[in-house]
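Assess the record.
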Amino acid sequence: MRPARPLEDHIIAALTQALAEGRTDAAEHLLRAVETLCSDATPGSVLADAYGAAFGSPPTRLVRRILRQ
């Protein structure tokens, strides 16, 4: 059995999909969920990756990892 993915991975995947579909209303809530789970916004952190996904930076390490799964 595969190990369960962390909740923040699921939320980042949903955030990425919401942004791709133009659902900024949903993306805002998903970004807030990541902010609630992860307070560290240093470069390379889950929260920094979420901000990168939300504000148009190139795909981050976390997003690439999620897409590979």
Q: What stands out?
A: The chain is about 65% helix and 0% strand. The longest helix spans residues 7-20. The helical segments are 7-20, 24-37, 46-54, 61-68.
